[in-house]
Amino acid sequence: MELPIQLSKDSREPIYFQIEEQIKALIASGQLSTGALLPSIRTLSKDLEVSIITTRRVYQNLEQQGFIRSTQGKGSFVAEIEEGLKKEVKVATVRLVFETAIETALRHDYSTEQVKEIFSDLMKDYEDKGKGE
Amino acid sequence: MNHAVTMSNVHKVIDNFQLESIHLEIEKGTIAALIGKNGAGKSTLLNMIMNLFKTDGGDIQILGQSVLGEDESWKKNVAYLPQKLPLIVPFTGHEMKELTARWYPMWDESLFQKIILLFGIDLSANFKKLSPGTQQQLNLALVIARNAPVLILDEPTAHLDIPSKQVLNDLLIEWMDNGERTIILATHQVEDIQKLADYLVVLKDGHIAGQFEKEELIETYKRYWFSEPLEIPTLPGEVERKESSLVTNRPTEAEDFLRNENVRCSNTQTLELDEIVTMLLVK
After folding, report:
1. Strand partners, B269
2. What angle do CA B18, B202, B222 make, to 5 degrees?
3. What local confidence, expressed as pLDDT, does residue B95 receive?
4. Which domain covers residue A97, as residue numbers?
5. Which SUPFAM superfamilies match (chain A) (predicted)?
6. Closest to A42 (Cβ–Cβ): which among B177, B194, B215?
7. How many domains is chain B built from?
């Protein structure tokens, strides 16, 4: 199974961290359900064009943090995770996207006040379209 | 013992070409791409690992066993596809398979048949009559199906068309997943490196200029863009300077340096692997 992971090479976040966070988000959002079989580290490394050293590190970290469990010879599966942890990941995922956006704006010499303005303009657009909640 | 192949202090003089103090360790379970310009010594190095060229000194081991001694049992652990086959045989694919399979106890007939089917090879045709691409496909099938824990391929994709390259990549990935296996491939194709390699081994003028883990290497190179014309002294690790951009392979020091010089860059960029490979091979 191919995972919908998008890597940004120019991001300040290292590649292994980006993969790790996105797999966590897939698990927290339920796109990867408990018990789902993950690709082997070799297959994932081919799909993402990264080395097996990177994917091995990702799976080791995810296993330590309780997101996946690996069985010798059978592969790695999505573990059962608590609701609390799922929520944490969701918050972290959204925060990370905002942080990246803020950094981009600051790099373009906007002040934090201006960033807030841009953000509230965008939110207003969403609400006007009736997409907001 | 975690290494599939080790070379320690190996040297060799051939005519006016010299391989000097080669140290190399290839970790089990990984794919290493051996890269270098034409004539850098890639094929010579692979032939030495196979003990087809004698070394002038040093030791070479495959799975912990020296290839230089009397005992040749290491040969069952390695399957090698040279760039040029020593002789073109007047056999059909079927006959070549029969001749190969009987020599290798680990021969995987169903894997062989699968590869033949995936490439669409006619085994009843005489080898000499096949196109270079099909000859290469057949050779690959013969070498992969031996199921030796160490696979050494010299320019495996050289004659292959785009769909066949894809087939080969998928085959090799699947093959790697079926046990503790290792591949060393000499290649000029950035695509092979991108899709397959965990490590890059750079061979330059007869010596190993470096061995790099792929992501580590990519993270080492940074390009900075500047909005004003450059009037900066040489950056730490500077490897390229253009009108409004600089490339370094020591980004942490370079960024400290820019901060001290009070220079702001307008953008920071990671390089593409092919650019990095070119810089490694040329500079």
Report:
1. B223
2. 140
3. 92
4. 84-129
5. Winged helix' DNA-binding domain
6. B177
7. 2
